[in-house]
Specification:
The chain is an alpha+beta fold. It is built from eleven helices and 30 strands. It is 16% helix and 35% strand. The longest helix has 17 residues, at 2-18. The two termini are 21 Å apart.
Length: 618
């Protein structure tokens, strides 16, 4: 009974200890104070971690929640270029105008309004939204990133003497002392009605490099049919498309739908009412009906869509999606001749081609029984072709540091290297906990298991190289991600960590993997808490007659990649260089042009460490 009672107390104390989400120092102090009263003391051991460099030849890039587009040069990893290839989607048997093509051609003696509509394309735009946010914690009408105090709705961001909330409510601009630009500040202006109070301010996410860079943009017609089913799997499974697939370089293009110099526009796009309501005094055609979030918006060839869409109304080519995609197989979006580095992560799942067309309608002139005063007028129609079906990225890299390949060749032979290189979709690392061999691993955990030590916390630290001490402006990824190798599945810590933070990569902050700074503000290491993973491998171990045996070694062997989005954990296919086969590679690492240089085991200073904190009886 006493033993059970003590174990219950220990369990409660552990809950208290794990509830402390602060730094290691605070954790140790709390743990020591608690456990010393019950005959326990906190001890710490540091165990070896071995890191081996590896490289992918290609990774699956279709079916991703975003697309990478642009060009970015890194002093170590070289130049990364990315283009987008996509099919288009269409509704079955679309009708343009008011009547089907068959009714237009046959006419209708009972309905004089059925006339040849002569649909003609007036404009076509490819639109790919940026990722944006309008987070406004204090609900004062100013997004947090622009708000002088995002927690106080009585703050005055533009300093004109009127609070942000009051300006939002009155229809002036809380980010401009003179909203309507008439030379009179808002606090003295009696009439600011000319200011468009409906205009929104956005924070544009996931653009890296020079946002004002210009570049040559090309949109081409794809002539290669993108099958969604895999012929290698007898068409019973979805077909993967990989980062090294480049149908443009293979010659599978025909018409150029756009080519020209381009620069990003970060303003929202208003659109107006198409018709004026005759029963009102206002001219509705001058009034804004709605607004589009900031996006890439590219004009496309009108004649192409006249021929390959509008003129096909009523024909078999538009009868179903399969027929349409066999005629219009898709598009390839490319960019080159950048004035400066610019890489974009784009909201491809909401991208579409918008076709606007004119068509003829019969106006009965208010006399339905008298056709002599009827006349023909022009109306407008809209038709959207979402990007979808098969959409994938082609990624090219060049001119990387030759030292990377030296590390890769060493890693393939399970040899340590001085540096470890991690880059999205290409370079990753394999980690071996507690030792390089199964024997070393058994020897390391035998005392922990045999003495029934209770592991309170396990901290893994991976140290960044000194490259960043001399290149303080060099971009460093905010997060790395560990997973179980070779399954590609997340660590047990991922499932138990329900912490929620702000931003794309704010969640799972106990598991972490986040970049840490030293006392001088320079990058130091990436920190992980992998307590559940360590306890899992200990629970799998059994001791019989003094001999330690393991059920399996999955939890000893981890993969390390960039963590572009901590929620994207589904494994996808990646193929190793030198024809070494396929591995499972988490989605979050597939698209990221950046990289980080870490210390390897051959470095003169510490590269990695596994700190295990446990309680032991005195």
């Amino acid at each position: 009974m006493q033993i059970k009672h003590s174990l219950s107390i220990i369990a409660v104390l552990l809950v208290i200890v794990f509830g402390v989400s602060s730094c290691d120092k605070e954790f140790h102090n709390v743990g020591i104070d608690l456990f010393e009263n019950y005959g326990f003391e906190i001890q710490t051991e540091t165990h070896p971690v071995y890191i081996y460099q590896d490289q992918l030849e290609k990774v699956q890039t279709n079916g991703l929640p975003l697309s990478m587009f642009g060009e970015y040069t890194h002093p170590v990893f070289g130049k990364t270029k990315s283009q987008i290839t996509s099919q288009l989607l269409i509704n079955t048997g679309p009708m343009f105008g008011n009547f089907t093509q068959e009714r237009e051609e046959k006419g209708d003696p009972d309905n004089v309004s059925v006339i040849p509509e002569n649909e003609t394309v007036s404009e076509v735009y490819l639109e790919i939204p940026f990722f944006t946010n309008q987070n406004d914690s204090d609900l004062d009408g100013v997004i947090d990133s622009r708000d002088i105090d995002p927690e106080d709705n009585q703050s005055d961001t533009d300093g004109d003497g009127i609070t942000d909330l009051a300006e939002t409510q009155s229809g002036t601009n809380p980010l401009d002392v003179d909203s309507d630009g008439d030379g009179i500040t808002d606090d003295d202006d009696d009439d600011s009605s000319s200011y468009d109070a409906g205009d929104n301010v956005y924070e544009i996410d996931s653009l890296y490099g020079n946002r004002n860079a210009s570049f040559n943009l090309k949109v081409k017609e794809l002539t290669y049919y993108l099958s969604q089913l895999d012929p290698d799997e007898n068409f019973a499974a979805l077909r993967p498309y990989f980062s090294n697939t480049d149908y443009a370089s293979l010659g599978f293009t025909r018409e150029t739908l756009f080519e020209g110099n381009f620069q990003l526009d970060f303003e929202e796009i208003p659109y107006y009412y198409e018709e004026d309501d005759p029963d009102t005094e206002e001219d509705e055609t001058t009034m804004i009906e709605g607004r589009l979030t900031p996006r890439i918006r590219v004009p496309l060839d009108k004649l192409f869509f006249q021929k390959n869409l509008i003129d096909l109304e009523g024909e078999d080519a538009l009868e179903n999606l399969s027929n349409f995609q066999s005629i219009f197989k898709g598009i390839i979006i490319q960019a080159d001749q950048f004035s400066d580095d610019l890489m974009m992560l784009l909201d491809i799942n909401n991208a579409q081609i918008k076709v606007r067309y004119n068509y003829d309608v019969n106006n009965e002139n208010g006399t339905t029984d008298d056709i002599t005063d009827d006349f023909t007028e022009t109306a407008n129609g809209n038709f959207n072709l979402p990007l979808g079906g098969v959409t994938f990225n082609t990624i090219q890299t060049e001119s990387g540091d030759p030292a990377i390949m030296e590390s890769v060749l060493a890693g393939i032979q399970k040899k340590p290297s001085e540096k470890i290189y991690i880059q999205g979709g290409k370079y990753f690392a394999n980690l071996s906990l507690f030792g390089q061999t199964a024997t070393q691993q058994r020897d390391a955990i035998l005392p922990i298991k045999s003495e029934r030590r209770l592991v309170n916390q396990a901290n893994l630290r991976l140290y960044v190289s000194d490259l960043y001490r001399t290149n303080s402006s060099l971009y460093l990824p905010e997060r790395l991600y560990l997973y179980l190798s070779p399954s590609g599945n997340p660590l047990p810590d991922y499932a138990v960590d329900n912490t929620v933070g702000s931003g794309t990569n704010g969640d799972k902050y106990i598991l972490s993997g986040l970049l840490q700074m030293d006392d001088s503000g320079l990058p130091s290491h990436y920190a992980f808490t992998i307590t559940e993973n360590i306890n899992t491998l200990l629970n799998k171990a059994t001791i019989e007659d003094g001999t330690l045996s393991m059920e399996d070694y999955d939890n000893f062997n981890l993969g390390l990649i960039l963590g572009a989005n901590i929620s994207q954990i589904v494994p996808r296919e990646g193929f190793l260089i030198n024809d070494r086969g396929m591995i499972k590679y988490p989605t979050m690492g597939a698209l990221n042009p950046f990289g980080v240089e870490l210390f390897g085991n051959l470095a003169e200073i510490k590269a990695a460490e596994l700190e295990v904190i446990y309680n032991a009886t005195r």
